[in-house]
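Students often ask why inverse folding is considered easier than folding. One informal answer: many sequences map to the same fold, so there is more than one right answer. In these notes we will look at a single instance of the problem. The structure comes first.
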C-alpha cells in the first residue's frame, strides 16, 4: 500500500465492532483512509471475554475485515493492523506499521479497551495481576501509541487526537457491580486516560496538536444490547453510530476547536448538530 500522498489518514483502535467500527466507517465516509486495529480479524472469531449475561465464550459479531469492507465501500483505503492492547511491543509495532505504511497520520482515535478477566470486578475480587492487565490495556497502551504518533504528527505540521473516554472517569457509580456499577480496574484506568487530552493541549497546542475527550454515554449494540438495557434500565442507551458521527465531525469541522478542553458527550453532540 503506498504512502498517503496528500490523502487524509486516520488510525482507529478497537475497530472490529461498536464505537471503533462506527468511527472508522464514518471517517472513511468523510474521505479518510483508515488504519484499523483489534484482535478480531475475521468474522466469526470474536468471543465475549468478561462475562456478563452473555457468558464467556459467546460469539460476537464484527471483525476488522468487515469494518475494512465498509471503509472501502466508501471509496477509501483500509489498513488492517492486528493488535492486542495488553501486548506493549505489539502496540508500538502497530503504530510503527501505520506510520511506515502511510508516512503521516492526521487523526488518532484511541477507542480500544481491554475486555477480559478483571475488567468488570469489584476491588477486593480483582487480583493485582488483573488490575495491572486492565490498566495496561486501557491506559498504558494508549500512552505507547501517543509516544510514537504525536512526534510524527508534530513533524508533519500537527494532528488530531480523539480519546474515547468514559463517565466512569469522573463520576461515582450509582451502585455496585450488577446494580448499575462498574469494575474497579476499568474506572481507575479510565480516570488516568481522561487526563491525557488536556495535557496534550497544554503542552503541544502550539505545535499543531489538538486533542479531544469524547464521552460516549451508554452505548449498546448487537449481542450486548439486551444486557445493557437490563443493567441500566433508567439510563438512555445510544447506538455506536451516534458516537462515530461525532468523532468524524471533530476530525473534519473547522468549528470543532471550540470543544477543546471540554467533555464532549458524543450522542448529545450528534443530536445537537443533526449529524445523523
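Output (designed amino acids):
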Amino acid at each position: 500500500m503506498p504512502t498517503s500522498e496528500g490523502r487524509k489518514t486516520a488510525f482507529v483502535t478497537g475497530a472490529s465492532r461498536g464505537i471503533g467500527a462506527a468511527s472508522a466507517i464514518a471517517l472513511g465516509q468523510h474521505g479518510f483512509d483508515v488504519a484499523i486495529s483489534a484482535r478480531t480479524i475475521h468474522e466469526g472469531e470474536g468471543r465475549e471475554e468478561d462475562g456478563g449475561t452473555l457468558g464467556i465464550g459467546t460469539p460476537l459479531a464484527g471483525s476488522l475485515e468487515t469494518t475494512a469492507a465498509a471503509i472501502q465501500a466508501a471509496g477509501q483505503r483500509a489498513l488492517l493492523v492486528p493488535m492486542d492492547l495488553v501486548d506493549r511491543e505489539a502496540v508500538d509495532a502497530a503504530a510503527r506499521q501505520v506510520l511506515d505504511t502511510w508516512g503521516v497520520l492526521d487523526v488518532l482515535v484511541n477507542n480500544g479497551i481491554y475486555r477480559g478477566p478483571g475488567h468488570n470486578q469489584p476491588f477486593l475480587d480483582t487480583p493485582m495481576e488483573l488490575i495491572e492487565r486492565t490498566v495496561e490495556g486501557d491506559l498504558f497502551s494508549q500512552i505507547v501509541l501517543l509516544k510514537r504518533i504525536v512526534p510524527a504528527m508534530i513533524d508533519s505540521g500537527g494532528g488530531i487526537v480523539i480519546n474515547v473516554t468514559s463517565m466512569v472517569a469522573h463520576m461515582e457509580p450509582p451502585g455496585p457491580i450488577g446494580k448499575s456499577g462498574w469494575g474497579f480496574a476499568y474506572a481507575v484506568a479510565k480516570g488516568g486516560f481522561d487526563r491525557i487530552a488536556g495535557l496534550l493541549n497544554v503542552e503541544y497546542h502550539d505545535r499543531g496538536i489538538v486533542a479531544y475527550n469524547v464521552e460516549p454515554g451508554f452505548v449498546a449494540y448487537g449481542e450486548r444490547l439486551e444486557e445493557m438495557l437490563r443493567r441500566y434500565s433508567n439510563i438512555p442507551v445510544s447506538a455506536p453510530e451516534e458516537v462515530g458521527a461525532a468523532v468524524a465531525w471533530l476530525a473534519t469541522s473547522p468549528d470543532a476547536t471550540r470543544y477543546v478542553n471540554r467533555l464532549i458527550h458524543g450522542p448529545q453532540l450528534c443530536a445537537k448538530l443533526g449529524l445523523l
